[in-house]
Design a protein that fits this description.
The protein is mostly helical. It has one domain. The longest helix has 39 residues. The chain is elongated. The two termini are 27 Å apart. 18% of the residues are buried. The complex comprises the extracytoplasmic solute receptor protein and the two transmembrane proteins. It comes from Vreelandella neptunia. InterPro entries: DctQ (IPR055348), TRAP_DctQ (IPR007387).
Amino acid sequence: MTSFLVKVNSGLLTTEKVTIGVILGVMALLLTLGVAFRYLLGAPFVWSESVSKLLIVWLTFVGTSVAFAEKQHITVDSVVSAMPSSVRSVVHTLVLLISIAILGTMAFLGYEYCQTVVSSTSPILGISLAWFAYAMPLFFIFSAFHLIANAIVERSFNAFETDMENV
């Protein structure tokens, strides 16, 4: 089971990283073309700003999921590291469970939000505003999956940092 979980987690992480690269590439291309068309040809892209906003929203949530997968979120652990190791384990487990609960709640609320904006459209792009919001529930679910997968595979509930004592 863990080898399957590792493959799925790794495949998802790779897909997310490729998605980040594509988003950044498209944003750079849009910026370059936008400047060229505005200043060299005198015909600006009126839609490039809206597309850039859409891409930034997606980049934020994809990046958040990658950070969960790679345990790169910032933590303040000075109090926890001063605790005995048995207490630290309990605290790490509680933090993991609370984080998963928060991500699940945010995924649900993100989905609810998508339902409220699905009938509204972007005036410039002509697409549903839900496309801006779909990243929220999707990548909150992926973030929770990464946390759960890391906990199962590593047999550790230390969700946000590597154990510096063993480095």
